[in-house]
## 1
Amino acid sequence: MTRFVARRILEVIPVLFVIVTLVFFMIRLAPGGPFDAERNVSDEILRNLEAYYNLDAPLHRQYLDYLGQLLWGDLGPSFKYPGWSVNELILTGFPVSLELGLYALLVALGIGLTAGVVASLKPNTLRDYVPMSLAMVGICIPNFVLGPLLVLAFGLWLGWLPVAGWEGPSYKILPAITLGAGYAAYIARLSRGGMLEVLAQDFIRTARAKGLTEARVVLRHGLRGGLQPVVSFLGPAAAGLLSGSFVVETIFQVPGLGRFFIQAAFNRDYTMILGTVLFYAALILMFNVIVDVAQAWLDPRLRDEIG
Amino acid sequence: MKRLARLTLCVLLCCVGCAKSGPPALRVGNGTEPQGLDPHTVTGIPEHRILGTLFEGLVDVDPDDLTPVPAVAESWTISDDGKVYTFTLRPEARWSNGDPVTAHDFAYAWQRILTPALASEYAYMLHCLKNARAFNEGRITDFDQVGVKVLDEHRIETTLENPTPYFLSMQIHYTWFPVHRKTIEAFGRMDERGTRWTRPGNLVGNGAYMLKRWAPNNIIEVVANEHYWNAAQVRLKRVFFYPIDNLLTEERSFRTGRLHLTGSVPLAKVPVYQRKHPELLRIDPYLGAYYYRINVTRPPLDDARVRRALAMSVDRVALTKNVLTGGQAPAYAFCVPDTADYTCASAVPYDLDEARRLLAEAGYPNGEGFPRIELLYNTSENHKLIAEAIQRMWKQELNIDVGLLNQDWKVYLDSQNNLDYDVCRAGWIGDFVDPVNFLECFTTGNGNNRTGWSSPKYDDYIARAAQTVGQKARFDLFQQAERILLEGAPIIPIYYYTRVYLKSPQVQGWHSNLLGYISFKHLHLAEAGP
Amino acid sequence: MDRVVQVEKGASLWQDALHRLRQNKLAVAGLAILAVMVAAALVTPWVAPYAYDAQDLDLGAARPSARHWLGTDQLGRDVLTRVLYGGRISLMVGFAATAVSLLVGVLYGATAGFLGGRTDSLMMRIVDILYALPFTIFVIILMVFFGRNIILLFLAIGAVQWLTMARIVRGQVMSLRNTEFVEAAVLMGFSHRRIILRHLIPNVLGPVIVYVTLTIPNVMLIEAFLSFLGLGVQAPMSSWGLLIKEGADCMEEYPWLLLFPSIALSITLFALNFLGDGLRDALDPRGAGE
């Protein structure tokens, strides 16, 4: 088991290396630089600026310098916000995004599992179609439509919830729902599928024959099987929540890492882009390692397959 | 039941708000997150608003008519040739840590911004000082040769290259603000970028406010500076700046009472407010021009007749009436009318027949044989709508094919700098109220030209105007220059900006002016209504 | 009597599946709707009431009326026309990007599954790792930095989706690999390439079709997401994603600008999802897995 975990963790390093290299060269080779400004700057000034940010060195030199810095965990100063380092900005933005992501996941699991389990109990009847269709709505309405709609309904017309910001508990509700709704749908489908598969199995029939109540059968025996595909979805779900956060954080003006990333991309803030990409990649990869380990632990049969 | 729920929620929220109690705060939507708070390394308007609260220059302006008023300097004298200004600082001016503000602080600040190693992008604002440009470009290294002389603790003398009638009003720009030497040098060298001196708790300024809190992408809070020399007159004690970059979210925040002031208003909302809540909407004239640049180095656009034909066939009235909603005025010249009493006498006519004739004369009768050109604009709903409308106008009236190209901000700037475009959208917001700020852009080789256009006669008029004392003579030269500009047509003026924003009736003491300059210390907040 | 005889005649895998599919009413409805959408997209240039760039500046944004069934936008352009043309682009992006992911995924997965052993382990390990990465970040970087080319859009979006395809195909190929007819082909000396292309891939088609049908809606949503950020399809072309984004920007003032493209996109997405679900149930009635 430890060997399995160790190998998994070690695999992460070459991946990060490839990502850094790829993104580094991709963004440096593209047009538009961080110092293009509406009011033109004299060549002299531009030269000094580039020297300060090490942009005048040959490209491979810059790359190696950057790698060197990385080893110390120093992601460099932000190009766009000279008073802040990338590390600082990530540290302010990430906890916010994490919180938002967790709430969204709770929303998704809450709605999704409920819908999926309920639907699986009486397949191909109204009790199946209705929750699944509602769940489908979550998939088919883009979050940048859902968000403003929710804001319109609950923020402006009813006036129950704030429309933007992150200043208190009430501010977190609408963004969490907007972000989580799409995943509720996937989780509903997955858990329904998983439940159907499990409920068709022999040991369930045995449990029923033994006289256990339906609730007990479903919750204690069926759910474990129903959860299995959901757990394996958690990895891609995390990646999805991450990209969803770009939209949701922009609409609701949440001061999270997603918003920083989008701004950095449009501002050509090289260090910030690289820093956030690396951070995200490392995060997600580690998260997937944890999920894999959890799965292997839950289902020893999988260990051989994976290990 | 609904109302009860709403009331309960309001009370709860109020309690939350009151938990962070203190004097009432003005909440301002401030556009993008500021690049920073060092007046010598930033370049934008959101920064300007905040820096204007934290620092103060020698001279301030009246927020209504923009005439210079004493600030840190209590008086000044101007020499007869208009080139030497001597300022006397008021002895009671203080930094936020109690230190007195002296003439040395200004000299130090101006040296800092002009130091080449700091690479300040806006340093050119100080090039009106004698030898400043040479120092900034590293051609001279002794700052004593620059036209700044500290006469004593409270008097400073500035010598200019040319008589510069707008020199006093330029002092409200952050590039002229003083900085606190000991603070800067406690965190790094004078010419070092990005040190921590601008963090809350470190930053020392001489303005009406102090920096209390700075959460990136979230909020910047400033509170009244008790050491400010005029602190007794400052009624507004706290300001929150929110970096909201999404216009729709900003409008909604205003509607729910979370903001008192917005930076802008989404296009579609303007008619709604005009109909339902005209008292909340403000449309102020603004010193800015929206226009298209033409790359004169690329055929067929190298023929002035083609350029003029393009310029004459844009129906600006239809655009401003139907597409734009903020009361913008159609522009038939470059300089904004009534800029310091200057209004251009020449104009680009809307004349379809003449346009077609010119196009035919240039060799493209009825658009035949005219190659496909591309119209470049940066990402924005507004720019897209206008570009699509003009594309269609040119197709319909001149029968030429124009493609649309959308690039995001940085790439778009790059394309302009490299003259890698045919026609592109541009905007120019004045830094100070004087026509030269607009007209000098199109002198040969000026960094803001970006069209490849060059006219020695034009350059000559502008250069002569710089030497001229006396408004009438100066403006006559500008008239001649602008006429040449419109005939040469490296640009197509389209409309003049207006500042469209929302203001809550709670905000009192409001002034508006051509620069969009907000003097927060003149404002105060009335109690919230029922 | 007749019915019994029919059943005894025996049905092939495909006929069986088709039969099951026909019984799933939602899936049939989905197929019908999809057919209508595609047909509309194809005949748009002849059917659309206005030229796609016809503007009417004086009219501005107007509610649905007899002249403009779905209303007009701020430049006075007919919304019905814009939705029709937008559909062409959206469906094209959907099909093209899916085709990219299909091509890459099938080739990769079939090769891995067929070759087996360590090559397969390595290839699938790479997939596992890539699967974890937030591809959208790379797509955003790609689109921001390299410009808004529609071909790039297909490639970028397709690149996000090929991984699951590769997995599915590889799984199928692995199980087929050991069947007798493949062993026979190997014994007979057919080249690997021939076996992969002519024997394995046709049999893998089932799950692939299901997945393709379910990928298209994802792709269309990714395009919509990119449009929200300003990185998707560029003016003067328009897609449902872009129309929805523009409509969302003024949804209180001109709700019809949001409503109609949203309905068009949603119906198409629903249709594709129901069809895909139906196909999956039809081809594998146990309803297991994703």
## 2
Amino acid sequence: MSNDIRTDVNETSQTAEASIGMNSTSAQAVKKMRNNKFFRVLKNWQYYVMVLPAVVLFFLFSYMAMPGIFLAFQRYTITGGLFHNEWIGFENFIAFFEGPYFWRCTRNTFLINITNLVFGTFSSVLFALLLNEMNSAKGKKIYQNILFLPTFLSVLLVARFLDLMLNNNRGVINALFESMGFAPVMFYDTPGPWVGIIVFAYIWKGVGYNLIVYLAVISGIDREIYEAAAIDGAGRGSCMIKITVPLLLPTIIILSLFSIGRIFYGDFQLIHAVIGTTNYALMDSLDIIETYLFRSVTNAGAGSAPDYGTAAAVSLFQTLLGFIMIFGTNTLVRLYNKDYSLF
Amino acid sequence: MVEKNDKAVRLEQVLLHLFFVLASISIIYPILLTFIASISTEQSIIQKGYSFFPSGFSGAAYKYLFETNDILKAYWVTIRVTVIGTPISVFLTSMAGFALSSKKVWGRNQIALYFYIPTIISTGVVAWYYNIAYVLKLKDTLAVLIVPSLIGVYNIFLVRNYYKTIPDSLSESAELDGASPFQIFFKIMFPLATPITATIVLFIALGYWNDWYLATWFIREDDLYPLQYYLYMLHTRITSDASSSQGSGTAIPINTVYLATMFVTMGPIVLVYPFVQKFFIKGIIVGAVKG
């Protein structure tokens, strides 16, 4: 608290000194008055009114949700609400860890995210490098605009496009197989290739966006470096590999570290749009923590009461994993370069 | 030697174009296919599958779509959500970002931290769901599609960072002339921040238009299905219909109706895309450089 006041005093005296059009005698008095924190808040009340709606919304939708964490330690009943259930310690966690979903969901979430991290980053950088090598400025622009289009489409439409291609009976790919004399592949009953398919869909949707980020970094690279290299006889290929890629590396590392921080958070939307609540065949490789939580909370399909206790335990488990990953990666980022760290 | 080099460069460029033409086709192909399949006959879909060369064309799906008012109802929900949500969201985000950028606000860093904490310590999706559904009791309301996503921490910080780049002297001189903070915001700062405002308007409007996550969790009443969620439910219905009985003898051309719904859902987005994409690209670059 005393610390707060001290920094406050420093700050105000600086602003008071910096303010213009004030004669020295009144400046003394005003300075003294301004040192009062209460006075400062009161005088600038309109600023606080401006930020108030956002503060209230955050309170309602984020902070008020926090007591819900306690559900993880309770045996939930509808009449018990949030606070009047039986407290059962870690029973919900044990039930989850011993059940069939713990390993499957955690593994799938991790696998999909890590595959996407590797291939998504690789393809974004590749696309950016190749587009950067293109001589025609017009072509560059047209391709960039087309590749950016999927950013605008909803995740749901992406899932429906996958269906157009891969549908067991009517999909384009199976029609192609048939015309070539191969047996059709029942994609929606075969979990094997789906991690790859989902990652492909992410790349399809996201490459245009990431491309822009990487192109922005590339365009910030000093042209003189390339000119110097060209004088020394370096070709375009070696310039790309020996100059552009190393200079992109900081961006790649930072973006990757942030993805690692969220590696146990799955992307609910696309996967839910593909498997829904009923495609059990694909769940072997696509059931992630979020889709499992959705099923147990909304309890689609079954007739019993929703299992908030276990679901809250899973959710808390995931939050803890996320917490560890965020602090872990933040430490890594700090080691790499202090300026890039989050906190 | 020089000639050979020229040839190599040209070949390289041709290959580059080829690569990006293929990539572009992969983007445009499914969009076009959706359209062509939606105007083919139901019979063609059932026999030949989704194809660029259907055995016959028919507008029955679109006729059905606009005769029954399901899709119009869904459109109306989405339009209301977008039209109500976007201005409020932009307005609140801009004000909060502006206030947090002002050096006069004591405790602004603490308030920023208050916004940031839920990102670090997320409550998890169950507590989030429980709070909105049972504590705030917003299930099956139009508000649940709008209010939870009114304020995003990323947008606040994006806007705040932009306002920080505007020189303090502007607002200081206005203050000396007797302008109140609200007047400073509306008359001076907000107009100056048009580039960033345009960007967040588009991001937020697109977010509302494309959202089906909130509906997936909180909407069970068909009257409140937004467009995207309606499409999801329609697809679920087709899959269950197809597995229960082939065709089931109904007069509704369900497959082409589904494709037509897909096309009608993405149509407006694809139409406005050429006009607004440059603002998005600018916004991403601003965000990437600043954040």
## 3
Amino acid sequence: MRNPSRWIAIGIAAVVALFGVALATQVGSDPSYAGGAILQRRAPDFDLPLLDVDGARVNLTSLRGQSVIVNFWNSWCLPCRAEAPALLEFWDRHAGDGDVAMVGIVRDESPSAARKGAREDGFDWTLAIDPDGQAAIAYGTTGQPETFAISPAGVVTGKQLSEVSVDDLEALLARARAG
Amino acid sequence: MPARGPGEAVNPRARNGSWIALGLVVIVTLWVAARPEPGTPSVRDRVRSVSSELRCVDCQSQSVAVSSTSSARAFRADIRRRIEAGESNAEIRRAYVETYGEFILLKPAGSGLGVFLWALPVVVVLMGAGGVALVLARSRRQPRLTATEDDEALVADAREHP
């Protein structure tokens, strides 16, 4: 070995490069980044107060048998407001379907502010609040908006971490219906 | 007891007794200070311990223990609820890893990619130390250069004609 220090430097560079490759591939497939940690698992049940009906509640168990789209949102969150037209169009298409339910869960906001935002955007699906953040934790949310698809059997079949388009919502619904 | 006059010798036995008493006091104090607190850690201690190991999901590299976001508060409340329901710290950690993946842990796990994360600095330091050792060994093997007459003449010339 004519120049050992050069080989040592090359060795260190190789180890660091290997680490970078491993990290990149692991991050890409890490379920927490892909939103996959909860996929194909039983959807955590929730029992939450409705946003716009005092004293009434919604729980996931009561929706068993339907394909459920669960959307975590806040009115102060710009991507949530940006995806509102897609949610409205999607719900216009499917509100009459007996096998589909959509629940918007306010992730981190006062009920009055969320109520005002929902009125402004014309949300007319089931809206609930998550006062102590337990539903958001149970679903492994890391922000908002996050949208989940739940099959009629109560299994999480899809998840999207960013704002959804109508096509995204249709794909989520198709996965939920397919179970 | 009459006062001791100047030059009066101190009883060596009494002096030794004082030192022994002082030593005992120090030993007992250290023992009391160092012994573990009796009983199990409080719920608050456990909440702090578990939450310090979890990543705040909507912060930059902060733990759930120190973050003031509402999600961190929700996590702390959830940890407390789980502790009060009888879950162990390990069970609570496992539940969050099942939902969020290893991402939720601030310290990498000791398996999979985590092993690589822990091992990488050690490997790099060892390789660096090996490189330094090789360079030192090589420099010892090579004799120090001595100035030849030509070198001396060159330096002398440079001094005379700067």
